[in-house]
Amino acid sequence: MNRSILGFALLGLFEQQPSSGYDLRKIFTQTPMWSYSDSPGAIYPALERLEKSGLIRGRVETSAGLRRRKVFRLTSAGMAELKKWLRKPVSREEVIRGMAEFMLRFAFTEHVLGSAGAMRLLQDLEKELRLYLPTLREFLEAHKEAMPISGRLALESGIRDYESKLGWTKYAIAMYARKNKGGTSS
């Protein structure tokens, strides 16, 4: 089944705690998750699709002040779908398209799959970055003389971004290795 990133973001949030559409909108507007959507025109239809697919279940509840709201919970099928997405190997396409989906997956991985799952995801990312960076450097070397300065500088900026991400990935792997050996994670 082909889920949107917003759909997986919602599944990950429901795994953490049951929520209403209003609760979710607050999360999306008040945290860095805004980049996945804060629009009721996207969130509510996504909730409806997830519920129709049997991945979440909503129940109307009465809260303080007799206000009624529909609270959604992750189903076992939803948890299976979330785990499948989190276990998906990091692909070259995911690295090229940007790191938004990877970071969302990574943010939910430890809570759902434990630190071993988070470490595996980081190791996948490290491998893909190590394979992709030489391709970018070779392209720059082969074409830099024909490129306008602005194009070369833009490509160099992209390469530096990927090098920085590789450095962060190594750091994150070291943090998990220290944690797994009984060290502190701060």
The span between the termini is: 38 Å
- Low-pLDDT residue intervals, each spanning 5 or more residues: none
Structural class call reads mainly alpha
Integer-rounded radius of gyration:
20 Å
DSSP strand content: 5-15%
Strand order of the largest sheet: 1-3-2
Total domain count: 2
Structure annotation, total helices: 7
Name the overall outline. Answer: elongated
Question: In a nutshell, what does this entry contain?
Answer:
By secondary structure, the protein is mainly alpha-helical. 69% of the residues lie in helices and 9% in strands. The model has no long low-confidence stretch (mean pLDDT 90).
Structure description:
This protein has 186 residues and is mainly alpha-helical. The protein has seven helices and three strands, in the order H-E-H-H-E-E-H-H-H-H. A three-stranded antiparallel β-sheet has the order 1-3-2.
